[in-house]
Amino acid sequence: MQLTDILYDKHHGIATITINRPDVMNAFRGATIQQLIYAFRDAWDDVKIGAVILTGAGQRAFCTGGDQKTKVDVGGYDFNGGLGGGIGLEIEQLHLVIRNIPKPVIAAVNGYAIGGGHVLHVICDLTIAAEHAKFGQTGPTVGSFDGGFGSSYLARIVGDKKAREIWYLCEQYSAAECQEMGLVNKVVAGELLMDEALNWAQKICAKSPTALKILKYSFNADTANIQGISQLSMASLALFYKTDESNEGREAFIEKRAVNFAKFRK
Ligand SMILES: CC(C)(COP(=O)(O)OP(=O)(O)OC[C@H]1O[C@@H](n2cnc3c(N)ncnc32)[C@H](O)[C@@H]1OP(=O)(O)O)[C@@H](O)C(=O)NCCC(=O)NCCSC(=O)CCC(=O)c1ccccc1C(=O)O
């Protein structure tokens, strides 16, 4: 597969996957998701790989979710190469491959982790963040939601009240605040981020791969029901993206204006 939207590197047993769309703050489009799935599957299949690092190119963003500029008027994102009937992004498959790859995945959050980009780090096994990183959801502001792992699993990590606050208010949280919530494992200076992520990955690579695999599946088993919730949520999102209400959120973001959802409160 031609990798236009990501960088993929394998070195000393560690696979590093970098979302490489810094012009749009590493927002993802259909092709980005396909390439991420490809890289995670390759790392899964490669017996030499013991740990995976997911990060974003540049200093400003880890990932800011779905690329609002590739979202079309009716029905979601513009990607035609994926499975039909969805939102135009195979995001559900990406979530599953990050969860199911039997090797720990470390999110190295180098800047904004927002919207669907925030969900990616939530799903990763571990998160190391740069001091300047910012975290948050934006769905209710831009006419979107992730009712699966992005909300139910988030609530498992930070608790129900905090998860509801994160989604209902759509505010941004610092790396230190996220560490306090248990959403980030470690905070380091920006220039040390990749060194620390590699350091943790090396430590993981020295451990028993079978023990790590069974532990990961054991942690996952306790929240496996969320996959069903995720399917329902993505199917609902595909319907929601066809509405004027959802479109108002996307258009306001593109036009850099305040959003007006008042007329949809009926
Ligand atoms: C990240 C910001 C807070 C940064 O703000 P700021 O520093 O002021 O910089 P900007 O001028 O806003 O941005 C610079 C430049 O980047 C472009 N850009 C940033 N994010 C995106 C994006 N997501 N899509 C397209 N373009 C983006 C921005 O337009 C600027 O370009 P110029 O040409 O220079 O003007 C801020 O940028 C921000 O809030 N970004 C939007 C984040 C966002 O709303 N993301 C979508 C979230 S939707 C969601 O949460 C749904 C739930 C979900 O998880 C999901 C589930 C299933 C499928 C998809 C999604 C999904 O994420 O859509």
From TrEMBL:
<dbReference type="InterPro" id="IPR010198">
    <property type="entry name" value="DHNA-CoA_synthase_MenB"/>
</dbReference>
<keyword id="KW-0456">Lyase</keyword>
<feature type="binding site">
    <location>
        <begin position="137"/>
        <end position="139"/>
    </location>
    <ligand>
        <name>hydrogencarbonate</name>
    </ligand>
</feature>
<feature type="binding site">
    <location>
        <position position="256"/>
    </location>
    <ligand>
        <name>substrate</name>
    </ligand>
</feature>
<keyword id="KW-0474">Menaquinone biosynthesis</keyword>
<feature type="site" description="Important for catalysis">
    <location>
        <position position="241"/>
    </location>
</feature>
<feature type="binding site" description="in other chain">
    <location>
        <begin position="112"/>
        <end position="116"/>
    </location>
    <ligand>
        <name>substrate</name>
    </ligand>
</feature>
<dbReference type="GO" id="GO:0005829">
    <property type="term" value="C:cytosol"/>
</dbReference>
<feature type="binding site" description="in other chain">
    <location>
        <begin position="64"/>
        <end position="68"/>
    </location>
    <ligand>
        <name>substrate</name>
    </ligand>
</feature>
<dbReference type="Pfam" id="PF00378">
    <property type="entry name" value="ECH_1"/>
</dbReference>
<dbReference type="GO" id="GO:0009234">
    <property type="term" value="P:menaquinone biosynthetic process"/>
</dbReference>
<comment type="pathway">
    <text>Quinol/quinone metabolism; 1,4-dihydroxy-2-naphthoate biosynthesis; 1,4-dihydroxy-2-naphthoate from chorismate: step 6/7.</text>
</comment>
<feature type="site" description="Important for catalysis">
    <location>
        <position position="77"/>
    </location>
</feature>
<dbReference type="InterPro" id="IPR014748">
    <property type="entry name" value="Enoyl-CoA_hydra_C"/>
</dbReference>
<feature type="binding site" description="in other chain">
    <location>
        <position position="77"/>
    </location>
    <ligand>
        <name>substrate</name>
    </ligand>
</feature>
<feature type="binding site" description="in other chain">
    <location>
        <position position="144"/>
    </location>
    <ligand>
        <name>substrate</name>
    </ligand>
</feature>
<comment type="pathway">
    <text>Quinol/quinone metabolism; menaquinone biosynthesis.</text>
</comment>
<comment type="similarity">
    <text>Belongs to the enoyl-CoA hydratase/isomerase family. MenB subfamily.</text>
</comment>
<dbReference type="GO" id="GO:0008935">
    <property type="term" value="F:1,4-dihydroxy-2-naphthoyl-CoA synthase activity"/>
</dbReference>
<dbReference type="InterPro" id="IPR018376">
    <property type="entry name" value="Enoyl-CoA_hyd/isom_CS"/>
</dbReference>
<protein>
    <recommendedName>
        <fullName>1,4-dihydroxy-2-naphthoyl-CoA synthase</fullName>
        <ecNumber>4.1.3.36</ecNumber>
    </recommendedName>
</protein>
<feature type="binding site">
    <location>
        <position position="241"/>
    </location>
    <ligand>
        <name>substrate</name>
    </ligand>
</feature>
<feature type="binding site" description="in other chain">
    <location>
        <position position="138"/>
    </location>
    <ligand>
        <name>substrate</name>
    </ligand>
</feature>
<dbReference type="InterPro" id="IPR001753">
    <property type="entry name" value="Enoyl-CoA_hydra/iso"/>
</dbReference>
<comment type="function">
    <text>Converts o-succinylbenzoyl-CoA (OSB-CoA) to 1,4-dihydroxy-2-naphthoyl-CoA (DHNA-CoA).</text>
</comment>
<dbReference type="InterPro" id="IPR029045">
    <property type="entry name" value="ClpP/crotonase-like_dom_sf"/>
</dbReference>
